[in-house]
Amino acid sequence: MRAVVLETAGPAPHLRDAVLPDPQPAPDEALLRVTACGFSHHDALIMEGTLRRGVTLPRVPGHEVTGVVCGVGDGVPASLIGTEAVVVPGDIGHRRDGGFAEMLTAPVASLVPLPQGMAATGGALLASPIGVALRALEACGVAGGETLVVTGASGGVGAHAAQAAHAMGASVIGITGSPEKAQRLEGKPWLDAVLLDDEPWEEVVAALTGDMGADVALDTTGTSLGRLAAAMRHGGRIALVGQTSPDAAPFAPAEAIFRELTLVGSLGVERRHVERALSLVAGGQVTPLVHEELPLSVESVTRAYRAVKRREVLGRVVLRPVGF
Ligand SMILES: NC(=O)c1ccc[n+]([C@@H]2O[C@H](COP(=O)([O-])OP(=O)(O)OC[C@H]3O[C@@H](n4cnc5c(N)ncnc54)[C@H](OP(=O)(O)O)[C@@H]3O)[C@@H](O)[C@H]2O)c1
User: Coil, helix or strand for 302?
Assistant: First the structure.
């Protein structure tokens, strides 16, 4: 099969278009023909060598995968063949080859079948970023009627968290770093306000909440934690999901102490979040935000990587193994 392999990570990551032996499913695993795979910030961090946790190289990256089952290992019913499913990632893209390939293997227990008619490009986003966003919203416990601030609101996790929170009845304030993206976000029905990161948005949050402060925040960038804490009401909750820069965010503990804030980290996604994501997407309450669809190749992975690093992406770039 054809695949894109990350040989070495670093400031100039080395990728190559490769022909690899077709993977073989182990017992309790399925072999999938990949239909789509998201390129995430997480992949960019792995490529540049910032994110090393359990990643072994060389590796086929890509953990936001949908595929059609085309083979099964021992103990798996052959009736599964032909099912299109999204994969709950686990160690895919870290210790197990991922979806920047024509095929991959995955434990059968990690497959969530897609309903007929759901597009693979959107389906690939169900576990991450949509399920990841749902888990983080669960961690901070957002409820209808509350005000949620989302940093990195143009990103994969941020934009889908905003949609899901809006569907739950929350008012959502999105923070973005660029006026171009602010323009593209304004008018999205799931954002009640779009604020620019280099403006004093804490003051606008205060004004929008009658000087009370936000009830909940979801931080996908890690670069604004101190400002977020200052924008919260007494007893507010902040879910920490991402860190887009190695620099620590300035953060004064007093802001959290005097407000008696709860800060909670959220990591990964479980099957139930993917199933919930599927029902929200099938019900039209969340729409997968696909920035661009590209044919899988080193050139496309490099293009997606550069777009993420330049903060040009709204939602996700999705790679599809077509044209091989
Ligand atoms: N905890 C978990 O389980 C989990 C799962 C998935 C992802 N993550 C992490 O969560 C973070 C967001 O993931 P994502 O998939 O939403 O990423 P993404 O799609 O690239 O979005 C991140 C957003 O953050 C903003 N940003 C601020 N500073 C940035 C910087 N220095 N470089 C790039 N973007 C920056 C950008 O928006 P503006 O330009 O509009 O500001 C960008 O759209 C990443 O750190 C990722 O590794 C965590």
Answer: helix
Measured from CB, residues less than 6 Å from any atom of ligand 1 are: 40-42, 45, 128-129, 132, 152, 154-158, 176-178, 181, 197, 220-221, 223, 241-245, 266-268, 308, 311, 313
Q: Which domains does the chain have, with CATH numbers?
A: 2-125+288-320 (3.90.180.10), 131-265 (3.90.180.10)
Nearest partner of 172 among 208, 207, 210, 136, judged by Cα: 208
What pLDDT, on a 0 to 100 scale, did the predictor assign at position 324?
A: 44
Mutate to test the pocket of ligand 1, among 46, 137, 157, 305 (most ligand atoms within 8 A of CB): 157
Q: How far apart are the first and last CA of the chain?
A: 9
Note the pLDDT tens digit of each residue in 198-213.
999 999 999 999 999 9
Q: Is 242 within 8 Å of 219 (Cβ atoms)?
A: yes
Q: In the predicted model, what is the mean pLDDT of residues 84-101? A: 94
| Cβ neighbour number for residue 86 with a 10 Å cutoff | 30
**92: which DSSP letter?**
B
